[in-house]
Amino acid sequence: MTELCRLCGGLATERFRHRVLDKYDARYSECASCHSLQTEPPFWLDEAYSVLDATPDIGFMRRNLLMSALTAEALRAAGIGPDDLCLDWGAGFGLFCRLLRDSGFNFHAYDKFSQSRYAWDKRIQNPAGIAPRVITAFEVFEHLPDPARDLEELFNFRPELLIFSTEIYNRQAPDWWYFDPPTGQHVFFYSRAALEWIAARHGYRLVFLDPAWAFVRPESPLQAGPWVQSGLDSLLHELKSDPWRWVGRDYEAFLAARRAKAPSPEP
Ligand SMILES: [Zn+2]
To answer: For residue 243, what pLDDT is reported?
Structure first.
């Protein structure tokens, strides 16, 4: 059975099936043009996300620590400063946003499905009209039910950098852990060629940040590099020299906002 690729519109042919959410027999089809793999149109997403907090994400802490170090260092290399608006798209609990603020970057959190508890004071409810210089989207793309349309939404911000992570599909066996049929949330798997295709379509360069990736506007100086290692070195240096700088700053801002909302009674 063939269907159209939800990224490039090419013809996709069934490769195998999995039981999604342990109840739906779903087709996984590979695109002959961009060589990505997609589930059949995912009608089960409401159900998949209704159990979001019950779904174990074992790699959550480690991924956030490594990606925050990598991102901070890549942003420094790209000339992004503390006044530049940065947006973490699909922020989840908001931990990544908080970690980047602690490293001195003006991050905000956006998530359609989560209150982003670690960054609730920096949540953006509706990002329409804002102009972030940087967007990050870690472990988001594989969740997009309609990647052509959903990525268009991200690129419409025309960020200078769009840093993201997703595992690359390269005809892995059906038991590859990243297909993750029990949770039903991973519904599109991008080949390297597909990422290049997305970059070209939107006028960006694709840069491998090992293990993350970035879509970079042509004029940005950001290049491939060992960003995790140098990021961890910088983070250690920062923690030893001035560990509470933005923590204190954001806490003061929170207190000021609370005072403004509910003035304390006159003594
Ligand atoms: Zn395709």
So the answer is: 82
